Amino acid sequence: MSQSLPAHALELLAPARTTDIGRQAILHGADAVYIGGPSFGARHNAGNTVSEIAGLVEFAHRYHARIFATLNTILHDAELEPARKLVWELYDAGVDALIVQDMGLLQLDLPPIDLHASTQCDIRTPEKARFLAEVGFSQIVLARELTLGEIAAVRAAVPEDTVLEHFIHGALCVAFSGQCNISHAHTGRSANRGDCSQACRLPYSLEDDQGRVVAFEKHLLSVKDNNQSDNLDDLINAGVRSFKIEGRYKDVGYVKNITGHYRQLLDEILEKRPELASASSGHTRLLFTPNPDKTFHRGSTDYFTQGRKANIGAFDTPAFVGLPLGLVTRIGPDWFEIEAEEPLANGDGLTYLNKREVVGMQANTVEAVGNSQWRIRPNEPLASLPGLAPGTAISRNRDHAWEQALNKASAERQIDIWAGFTETVDGFELTLHDADGISASAALPFEKQPAREPDKAESALREQLARFGGSDFSLLELTVAWSQPWFVPASAANKLRREAVENLHAARLAAYLRPTRKAAVVPPAIYPEEALTFLANVYNQAARRFYEKHGVKLIAAAYEAHKEAGEVSLMITKHCLRYSFSLCPKQAKGVTGVQGQVRAEPMTLVNGNERLTLKFDCRACEMHVIGKMKKHILKTPPPSVVPVTFHKQQR
Fold it and tell me: Residues near 452 by Cβ (< 8 Å), separated by ≥ 6?
């Protein structure tokens, strides 16, 4: 098999809602892009046709970058055959790998396409990771909650050719991925089937076991956004090789900015650590300065990478507040003034906090009225902006001028080449060698004539041959070897260069090796457990056969099958509200007069008439959100078939 990723290679993996965004991700430095097909992806509103993905594949392979298709939902029995046909289409389109959750897919007649285990597979332990590697997954996406030590333990447990992939930026699911059923229980929309209602972003009040309010109407299940900028070296040392950016719903500005940011950080590491290399070809030149704080986020956290921390929650708001800008100094009839060192522009998005609520507005017009003083006329009457007064702190969550720069061409990606011009018996030849050791030539039959101005002939030739602007290539050196200066018209030199570039493109595509399916071990690996609860998400008979083949004896149906009528763990999370509010029994250890008095009693989350019990598994250091399926959901038949549109001949 062609190995998924060499052990010394670092892969920056970017999201794409559309294929156009995918192209921009690659231009801004991504080594790989993950994207949804027409169906069965965990972001059901971020689909693309197979023909569109085929075009993205061709573009990516020019840089030896990879394209991964997400097929990471659990499947109903009636969806297995449409899913199988879709996999064949994606394979025929040149897709490099599938990101999957449903083990039933491994029981189907699939092409030899590389398989990656989605984070939806809930990969937290070395035993689970090793099992997935042994059944045929070449790349596994780790749970976001793992510490550096836990990642290193997984690395030590899996075969050397298994790639560890880890999220380094973007929104965080508060629950362990694949272990959240609260959306389906309350709305019938299943996160495991790509349609999460995001109950975690709602406001809740927290009550203790005696009904006392610990927190009032806070977004208690909403956590800050992931940012591992300071941990990349540590993650590399722990064994991570694929660095994943979240965001298949995000716009092109986010993808450009965040991809460019991590491309710069990884390039700095590669410069210091020559034993490592980029996973794809070329180098990126950014035409803007990346800044992760400029695009949507709920505050930043490195989550559990360096151990548990108390301040991971985005309790005040799940909205993007933006960067602090300045204080209001004066209020007028239809304007207000602020003092700010940063320049402002028409169209800027501004926010402020009023009674725990974020108030947003747009600056219709902005004018400088003094040293660091700006007069702003918002898009709404001042009377409709509650709490706006002198002294109010204003933030900016949309920097219009900065975003306008991102809307233009904002990056170039080129592959270094060396060129050699030589004369042949019947004309001339140009040979190109690239940084990957791939070569291509173009020959031009031409009746040679001595140059009329020999002293200018070579410089004129070099000027024409060096024009690689607009191509994928950047010329480092050009050698000219001829017996004497010949007359070479500019049109002939340009034709020779264009054909050489086309031939090098073709040679690079021919040299690209698509990874192939990793063989499962024989005899079949044994799953770490003999019994599976509904949390294993077994939703079809093929998945059931898979687990039976691997030694599992008791297999419960997925929550979506509506077999769990009573109260269960609708959400399991490493985020712990007792810890966030300094009520954790472990925090009390060593505190005089406290030890033994603080216990992990149940608590309750309240949202309107909704009451959810919180139970705390202190040994595992986890919080369980307990509830049951609403009656009208329980009575609704489970979803069956998602329509699939095929764009090639079906297999």
Answer: 487
Q: Does residue 360 contact residue 349 with C-beta atoms inside 8 Å? A: yes
Q: Which helix (H) or strand (E) holds 56?
A: helix 50-62
Inform me whether the pLDDT recorded for 644 exceeds 70.
Answer: no
Question: In this structure, what token pair is assigned to residue 612?
Answer: 């959810």
Closest CA to 73 of 231, 169, 184: 184
| Main-chain phi, psi angles of 22, to 5 degrees | -60, -40
Strand 603-607, strand 204-207: pairing? antiparallel
Residue 286 has pLDDT above 80, yes or no: yes
Residue type for position 367: E
Confidence band of 588 (pLDDT split at 50, 70, 90): low
pLDDT at 332 over 80: yes
Give the β-pairing of 225-227 and 300-301: parallel
Distance CA 144, CA 228 (A): 11
DSSP state, residue 384: G
Name the pLDDT band for 638 (thresholds 50, 70, 90). Answer: low
Q: How far apart are CA 307 and CA 146, in angstroms?
A: 9
Residue 523: is the preceding peptide bond cis (ω within 30°)? yes
Q: How does strand 213-218 pair with strand 204-207? A: antiparallel
Q: Residue 573's pLDDT is what? A: 97
pLDDT per residue as tens digits for the range 455-491: 999 999 999 999 998 899 999 999 999 999 999 999 9
pLDDT (mean) for 623-649: 69
Q: How far is it, in rounded angstroms, from Cα 114 to Cα 519?
A: 10
Q: What's the alpha-carbon Rg for the chain, to the nearest Å?
A: 29
Task: Tell me the pTM.
Answer: 0.93
Q: Please state, in angstroms and rounded to a whole number, the distance separating the CA atoms of residues 291 and 295.
A: 8
Please tell me the predicted confidence (pLDDT) of residue 318: 86
Give the model's pLDDT for residue 319.
85
Tell me which residue has tokens 């929650």: 313
β-pairing verdict for 139-141 and 163-170: parallel
The torsion angles phi and psi of 324, rounded to 5 degrees, stand at -55, 135
The mean predicted confidence, pLDDT, of the chain is: 93
CA distance 220 to 304: 17
Q: Is the distance from CB of 162 to CB of 149 less than 8 angstroms?
A: no
Report the C-alpha gap between 550 and 54 in whole angstroms.
Answer: 35
What are the structure tokens assigned to 173, written together?
């699911």
Cα distances from 212 to residues 496, 594, 606, in angstroms, run: 80, 20, 12
**Rounded CA gap, 247 and 257, in Å?**
12
- How far apart CA 581 and CA 204 sit, in angstroms, is 15
The secondary structure element, H or E, covering residue 455 is helix 454-465
**Integer Cα distance of 556 and 558 in angstroms:** 7
Q: Domains in the chain, start-ordered, CATH in brackets?
A: 9-172+227-286 (3.20.20.70), 319-407 (2.40.10.170), 411-511 (no CATH)
* Residues sharing a CB contact under 8 Å with residue 306, sequence separation 6 or more, in sequence order: 147, 148, 231, 234
Tens of pLDDT, residues 164-184: 999 999 999 999 999 999 999
